[in-house]
Design goal:
about 170 residues, 3 helices, about 20% helix, membrane, transmembrane, signal peptidase activity
Length: about 170
Protein backbone atom coordinates (compact mmCIF):
# COMPACT_ATOMS: atom_id res chain seq x y z
CA UNK A 1 0.00 0.00 0.00
CA UNK A 2 1.37 3.38 -0.92
CA UNK A 3 1.88 6.09 1.65
CA UNK A 4 -0.66 8.38 -0.06
CA UNK A 5 -3.32 5.65 -0.16
CA UNK A 6 -2.73 4.85 3.53
CA UNK A 7 -2.99 8.54 4.44
CA UNK A 8 -6.30 8.85 2.52
CA UNK A 9 -7.64 5.82 4.34
CA UNK A 10 -6.81 7.38 7.73
CA UNK A 11 -8.51 10.62 6.65
CA UNK A 12 -11.66 8.72 5.62
CA UNK A 13 -11.72 6.86 8.94
CA UNK A 14 -11.24 10.15 10.80
CA UNK A 15 -14.15 11.74 8.90
CA UNK A 16 -16.42 8.75 9.67
CA UNK A 17 -15.56 8.84 13.36
CA UNK A 18 -16.06 12.62 13.55
CA UNK A 19 -19.48 12.36 11.85
CA UNK A 20 -20.49 9.56 14.23
CA UNK A 21 -19.48 11.64 17.26
CA UNK A 22 -21.37 14.69 15.98
CA UNK A 23 -24.50 12.63 15.26
CA UNK A 24 -24.36 10.99 18.70
CA UNK A 25 -23.98 14.41 20.33
CA UNK A 26 -26.95 15.86 18.40
CA UNK A 27 -29.16 12.85 19.16
CA UNK A 28 -28.24 12.92 22.86
CA UNK A 29 -28.67 16.69 23.17
CA UNK A 30 -31.87 17.27 21.20
CA UNK A 31 -33.76 14.01 20.72
CA UNK A 32 -32.95 11.21 23.18
CA UNK A 33 -31.35 11.09 26.60
CA UNK A 34 -31.10 8.64 29.46
CA UNK A 35 -32.17 8.73 33.06
CA UNK A 36 -31.69 6.44 36.05
CA UNK A 37 -34.77 5.46 38.05
CA UNK A 38 -34.15 6.27 41.71
CA UNK A 39 -36.38 4.67 44.31
CA UNK A 40 -39.45 2.45 44.16
CA UNK A 41 -42.17 4.99 43.36
CA UNK A 42 -42.74 3.58 39.85
CA UNK A 43 -42.67 -0.08 40.94
CA UNK A 44 -43.66 -2.47 39.31
CA UNK A 45 -43.41 -0.64 35.95
CA UNK A 46 -39.89 0.66 36.59
CA UNK A 47 -37.44 -0.64 39.18
CA UNK A 48 -34.85 1.23 41.25
CA UNK A 49 -31.60 1.48 39.30
CA UNK A 50 -33.05 0.82 35.86
CA UNK A 51 -31.87 3.10 33.09
CA UNK A 52 -34.45 4.44 30.67
CA UNK A 53 -34.20 6.21 27.35
CA UNK A 54 -36.49 9.18 27.09
CA UNK A 55 -37.69 11.11 24.07
CA UNK A 56 -36.92 14.82 24.44
CA UNK A 57 -38.56 16.01 21.22
CA UNK A 58 -42.00 14.38 21.49
CA UNK A 59 -43.55 17.21 23.53
CA UNK A 60 -42.29 19.88 21.17
CA UNK A 61 -44.72 18.50 18.58
CA UNK A 62 -47.38 16.97 20.85
CA UNK A 63 -48.76 17.29 24.39
CA UNK A 64 -48.48 14.82 27.25
CA UNK A 65 -51.23 12.21 27.28
CA UNK A 66 -52.77 10.30 30.14
CA UNK A 67 -50.66 7.25 30.88
CA UNK A 68 -47.39 8.67 29.54
CA UNK A 69 -44.41 8.02 31.79
CA UNK A 70 -42.59 11.33 31.88
CA UNK A 71 -39.34 12.77 33.17
CA UNK A 72 -39.99 15.89 35.27
CA UNK A 73 -37.20 18.38 35.83
CA UNK A 74 -37.08 20.13 39.17
CA UNK A 75 -34.06 22.10 40.45
CA UNK A 76 -33.28 19.55 43.16
CA UNK A 77 -33.66 16.44 40.94
CA UNK A 78 -35.53 14.79 38.10
CA UNK A 79 -38.59 12.62 38.77
CA UNK A 80 -40.11 9.78 36.76
CA UNK A 81 -43.93 9.73 37.06
CA UNK A 82 -47.05 8.78 35.12
CA UNK A 83 -49.43 11.44 33.75
CA UNK A 84 -52.83 10.83 35.34
CA UNK A 85 -54.76 14.06 34.89
CA UNK A 86 -54.82 16.60 32.07
CA UNK A 87 -55.48 20.36 32.22
CA UNK A 88 -59.05 21.21 33.26
CA UNK A 89 -59.92 17.72 34.54
CA UNK A 90 -61.14 16.95 38.05
CA UNK A 91 -59.29 14.17 39.87
CA UNK A 92 -60.60 12.25 42.84
CA UNK A 93 -59.55 9.03 44.53
CA UNK A 94 -62.29 7.35 46.57
CA UNK A 95 -61.88 3.97 48.23
CA UNK A 96 -58.61 3.39 46.33
CA UNK A 97 -60.29 4.01 42.95
CA UNK A 98 -59.39 6.82 40.53
CA UNK A 99 -62.17 9.03 39.16
CA UNK A 100 -61.53 11.54 36.40
CA UNK A 101 -64.42 13.97 35.88
CA UNK A 102 -66.54 11.66 38.07
CA UNK A 103 -65.93 8.64 35.80
CA UNK A 104 -64.14 5.57 37.16
CA UNK A 105 -60.78 5.17 35.41
CA UNK A 106 -59.25 1.68 35.24
CA UNK A 107 -55.51 1.64 35.96
CA UNK A 108 -54.36 -1.61 34.38
CA UNK A 109 -50.69 -0.73 34.92
CA UNK A 110 -50.99 -0.90 38.73
CA UNK A 111 -50.21 -3.98 40.79
CA UNK A 112 -53.03 -5.37 42.92
CA UNK A 113 -51.23 -4.11 46.02
CA UNK A 114 -51.03 -0.55 44.63
CA UNK A 115 -54.72 -0.68 43.62
CA UNK A 116 -55.60 -1.41 47.24
CA UNK A 117 -53.27 1.21 48.79
CA UNK A 118 -54.06 4.35 46.81
CA UNK A 119 -56.14 5.87 49.61
CA UNK A 120 -58.38 8.89 49.10
CA UNK A 121 -57.68 12.28 47.59
CA UNK A 122 -59.57 15.26 46.20
CA UNK A 123 -61.62 16.14 44.37
CA UNK A 124 -59.29 18.70 42.83
CA UNK A 125 -59.47 20.46 39.47
CA UNK A 126 -56.24 20.70 37.51
CA UNK A 127 -55.51 24.27 36.36
CA UNK A 128 -55.04 25.00 32.68
CA UNK A 129 -51.48 24.42 31.53
CA UNK A 130 -50.81 21.93 34.36
CA UNK A 131 -50.73 18.15 34.73
CA UNK A 132 -51.40 15.76 37.61
CA UNK A 133 -48.86 12.95 37.97
CA UNK A 134 -48.50 9.94 40.25
CA UNK A 135 -46.06 7.10 40.70
CA UNK A 136 -47.30 3.56 40.12
CA UNK A 137 -46.36 2.55 43.69
CA UNK A 138 -48.99 4.84 45.18
CA UNK A 139 -48.34 4.19 48.86
CA UNK A 140 -44.77 5.58 48.76
CA UNK A 141 -44.74 7.91 45.75
CA UNK A 142 -43.97 11.61 46.06
CA UNK A 143 -46.23 13.01 43.36
CA UNK A 144 -48.93 15.61 42.65
CA UNK A 145 -50.87 14.50 45.75
CA UNK A 146 -48.14 15.09 48.30
CA UNK A 147 -45.18 17.23 47.36
CA UNK A 148 -44.73 17.75 43.64
CA UNK A 149 -47.99 19.58 43.08
CA UNK A 150 -49.24 20.26 39.58
CA UNK A 151 -46.64 19.95 36.84
CA UNK A 152 -46.20 22.50 34.05
CA UNK A 153 -45.49 21.33 30.52
CA UNK A 154 -42.13 23.15 30.69
CA UNK A 155 -41.10 20.90 33.60
CA UNK A 156 -41.75 17.77 31.52
CA UNK A 157 -38.49 17.19 29.68
CA UNK A 158 -39.39 13.95 27.92
CA UNK A 159 -41.39 10.75 27.69
CA UNK A 160 -39.84 7.49 28.80
CA UNK A 161 -39.63 5.12 25.84
CA UNK A 162 -37.87 1.99 27.05
CA UNK A 163 -35.62 0.43 29.68
CA UNK A 164 -32.16 -0.26 28.27
CA UNK A 165 -30.39 -1.48 31.41
CA UNK A 166 -30.23 -3.95 32.98
CA UNK A 167 -30.32 -5.81 29.69
CA UNK A 168 -32.64 -8.56 30.96
CA UNK A 169 -35.24 -5.86 31.75
CA UNK A 170 -35.26 -4.26 28.27
CA UNK A 171 -38.86 -3.31 27.47
CA UNK A 172 -41.07 -0.45 26.40
CA UNK A 173 -42.29 1.66 29.30
CA UNK A 174 -45.54 2.84 27.78
Amino acid sequence: MTETKQKNEWIEWGKAILIAIILAFLLRTFIFATSIVEGDSMDPTLQDGERVVFNKIVYLIDEPKRGDIVIIHRPEKNYVKRVIGLPGETIQIRNHKLYINNELHDQTFLSEDAKNHTGSFGPITIPEGRYFVMGDNRSISKDSRNGLGFITEDEIIGRSEFVFYPFNQMAKTR
